[in-house]
Design a protein that fits this description.
alpha+beta; 155 residues; 7-stranded mixed beta sheet; Aminopeptidase
């Protein structure tokens, strides 16, 4: 697998499809999916955090998308990382590729000196919840309408 810089001009519709599918998995509907907000989000990532906005390529085909930020300083002055999205096309799920994507991101966090990694998921996304629990993520705080915050200790 390769992790390449995104190309919004060329692949915007594909990335929007990835995000729409992720939204559907989390909310069991895409009625509330806002294309304009998503495009603005992509543009913000591209401008402000290009290192954490990658397309996943396998055998020349884009099969996924990663969105994350490393080196965030928490209230205690420790560095953390935050994962916004690990996305794979349905036909590539369940083949241990998700573990490889997670490993790629966590390796970056560790290299950058992060002590913890965080992410948030909605419990309706049962597959994501199972994946995170199987890979050592622990719930932090209480479940809210924004989902369940999860943490993984890195060092």
């Amino acid at each position: 697998m390769e992790f390449e810089e995104v190309n919004l001009e060329k692949n915007l519709d594909l990335y929007l499809g990835f995000r729409r599918d992720a939204h559907f998995l989390s909310y069991e509907s895409d009625r509330e999916f806002n294309v304009e907000e998503c495009i603005n989000w992509f543009q913000s990532l591209k401008e402000n955090n290009p290192a954490g906005f990658k397309q996943v390529v396998l055998n020349g085909q884009i099969i996924g998308l990663l969105e994350y930020k490393s080196g965030i300083e928490d209230v205690n002055g420790e560095l953390t990382g935050y994962i916004n999205l690990i996305y794979l096309l349905p036909e590539y799920r369940g083949k241990n590729l998700g573990e490889e994507l997670q490993s790629q991101i966590l390796s970056r966090f560790i290299f950058d000196g992060c002590k913890f990694a965080y992410l948030r998921y909605l419990p309706k996304n049962v597959v994501a919840g199972s994946f995170y629990k199987k890979n050592g993520w622990e719930p932090k705080g209480v479940l809210t309408e924004r989902g369940q915050l999860m943490v993984k200790t890195l060092a």
